[in-house]
Amino acid sequence: MIAETRRISRQARDFTEAYHSAFKEYLSGANQATIRRAYELGRVALAAGMGVLELAALHETCAATLASEIGAAKTEAFKFLLESLAPYEMVFRGLQEADAKLRQSLRELMLTEDTLRRQNEKLSSTHQALAQERKRYRELFEFAPDAYLVTDLTGKIREANRTLAALLCTPQALLAGRPLSEFVLDEEREAFESHLREFKVGDLEKIDDWQLSVQPSDGTSIQLAVAIGAERGVDGALSGLRWLLRDVTKRKRAEEERTQYLVSHAEAEAARRFEFLAEASSLLASSLDYEATFASVARLTVPYLADWAFVHLVEEDGSILQLQPAHAHAIDPELAQDLDRLGLLEPRRRSELGIFAHVVRPKIMNAFRGKWLEDVAGGTENATILLKLGFRTAMIVPFVARDRALGVLTLVAAQSGRIYRQTDLALAEDLAHRCALAIENARLYRQVIRERDKAEKASRAKDEFLAILSHELKNPLMPVMSWTRMLKNHRLISQDTTLSEGVKSLERNAQNISRLVNDCLDLARISQGKIQMKSEVVDLNQIVLAAMEAVREMAGNKKLSLIGDLACAPLRVSGDPTRLQQVIMNLLVNAIKYTPSAGAISIQSCTSENAAVIQVKDTGEGIDASFLQHVFEPFRQGTSTWLTSDSGLGLGLAISRKIVEMHHGRIWAESQGLGWGTTFRMQLPIAAPPERQSECLPAGPQLVQQADTVKILVIEDNEDILFILKLELESRGFSVVTATDGLNGLELAKNGSPDLIISDIKMPGLDGYELIKTIRATPELADIAAIALTGFGMQTDIDQLLAAGFNCCIPKPADIDDILPLIQELTGA
Questions:
Q1: Into how many domains does the chain fold?
Q2: Which pairs from 541-544 meet CB under 8 Å and 24+ separation?
Q3: Whether residue 571 is found in the same domain as residue 660
Q4: Cα R_g (the chain), whole angstroms
Q5: Across 309-334, average pLDDT
Q6: Which among 62, 88, 179, 813 counts the fewest CB atoms within 10 Å?
Q7: Per the domain annotation, does 458 fall within a domain?
Q8: 711 and 680 in one domain?
Q9: 661 and 724: one domain?
Q10: pLDDT, tens digit (0-9, with 9 covering 90-100), for 462-516
């Protein structure tokens, strides 16, 4: 204590001598150098904690000593004092500007909250509709008559329907995760793997008809007709494969058995029609690209059912799409030129209704003339050319689903001389019905995919917005919190009640904004599944006590009673102590917000059925029974008094529920209604008793030794943050060099060889990523320790910074007490 007193006395004496010397030199002839020296003495006094009055008293003492030299130069002597007080003026001016920025940030945050709430309501509605559509798609997938499955690029099964389970004689629940290659015969496995490799490298996009032999679990091998299509994600990258499997063995066996019993021409024709419909169904089910499959179906009908087949589809925008017509016979070259010239045989879109104006129900047309033919052909000239094709009779069958026309199938007989009858029309109707279902299913699937993509895009946009918002808020928060932390303990401010309360208010509100920003980031991390949890055995009672201590001042400001009733024995649970304290603090802060002044808040801990239970009870506003089930949803308020209360975005409870669920526990709220207060209960499983270990206290943080030998380069484009970091580091004895951008910082690193670099990430010219990559690629700088100081706090951002070359990351707003242990660890100081 005596040595410390002497050191302080020596420092004061040295400063007095320096001030006296500078003052005397100034009086002998004021110039730029003596004015700068007065300013630097003022900064030293500010950093040493000297008050304005103390500096003024020192000036008067020096003036008295130099009275004979001052003479008539009293005005110049006073100017010297004003220059030395300039740093104090800059500090107070900075506080005023920070307060204005803070108010602006709060206004912007209120607007952001309203925007996010509306986006959340819209997303909720979209998700409900998407869930219904997914349910319909799942039912169609599950009960399809053919075997469907989805695999990854290695052939491992991700989804499989009931038909596949029956085909492979394997329970459906046991198919997920198994490689499809396990069922492929050994002699065909190499070809199977070869096709998978072709899909993976992009040589194949789909396979329409591939014969493959498999051996189900019952041991009897079967032959399958396989169709495979590539599945791609939102970004277009290949993510998996979709398979359609048809048992060709069973179909052939059924055909052979049926042929034995078909003794009449009618029965044989029925078999052929059944085969035709089965083949058409397989084609329609082979791909969700119905335009391609419909072209295949049109070719299937020729020449079995028609000489010509036309397919017209009503697009979702109401336009008409004509697919490539199919025909059974060669066309005269001269006539083919006319058809090509008019585009009658090429797919084309047109806006008029055309044939749909006359098609209400399936019909047979035995005469080609009049307006109907002109509508089909698209004009009188086209109709004349079509008549040259020798059309005799036609069947026109609409594709109808849910009483809505989706298109038309037109089958025409020409050279074959076929005359259509009602039995042919019934077959065409059956085919059209299957086509309509295929269109409906494919469009439904496309709609589901579009809605899913829009939802994912909106979710990503929300997360990116939260990350940018947090960065822009953390930058101004850091100097505000650092200056308030320094100024609240300053003697002159602590002695002034008004200034002391003002600084405390600044710190309290800055901490509230920081907590709100961290809540937004936590919500984004949870939605992405990227929140990380530690796992260790902790005493829940100690966590409750720490949380109570953290909110005690907040409760005292509202004159609330904070009562703790904790279990006598330790409540040991397995979990992350920081996250568990966050949950309990959220419950306490929520109770404080909604409890009027002079109310009471109690927190109790106990055990119940091998579980640790924490109960937080308040005498506040209470929650309506209809809202209890929504109280843990983000951006929701339990009452309509939001404008008259200090409630926030409603994120704390949502984050708390996710954290508790990740600890395999549960959390819920109880209330008898508005005006009756609220009780929150959290339940966590009790951890097994820890093994007895020798008692030893963990080593506390070591004091920084020989800090004057450590040279630190600080790179930050925010001058407020740069100034406060330099001030705080230098006050602890470090040698600090600063730069306001990456290019200048890189040059200083090359010339100055610092022991440690602390760098911002978002900077003009050269950002933090490029800076650290350049440093690591420069041999003489490659081993310098580097700390990233960033407002981007997502786990992906931290991982990218570490991968780029930083030794560690500190999110803004950073406390000097958080930075010092890292400096000690990285430099050994």
A1: 4
A2: 541/566, 541/567, 541/570, 541/571, 541/605, 542/570, 543/577, 543/580, 543/581, 543/584, 544/584, 544/603, 544/605, 544/614
A3: yes
A4: 40
A5: 72
A6: 179
A7: no
A8: no
A9: no
A10: 666 666 666 566 667 667 766 777 777 777 776 777 777 676 666 666 666 666 6
